[in-house]
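Reading group handout, session on sequence-to-structure problems. Before we discuss, look at one worked example. The prompt was deliberately terse, the way you'd type it at a terminal:

> structure Cbb3-type cytochrome c oxidase subunit 3

The input record follows.
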Amino acid sequence: MSVEHDLLVGISKSFGLFYLMALSVAALIYAFWPANKPRFDRAARSILDGEDKPWR
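And the output record:
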């Protein structure tokens, strides 16, 4: 049984492409999921909560 190098390269590139596309879609779904909005809003405000005066 012989598997040529070009076939393995093609399979690995295709797998990598679909893997990254699926990961990107999963990240977008997680970021825009309505239940996560309060968590992201709280995280965005938390960095500014202690910034009521200039740094010294």
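Points for discussion. First: The first helix runs from residue 5 to 32. Second: The radius of gyration is 22 Å.
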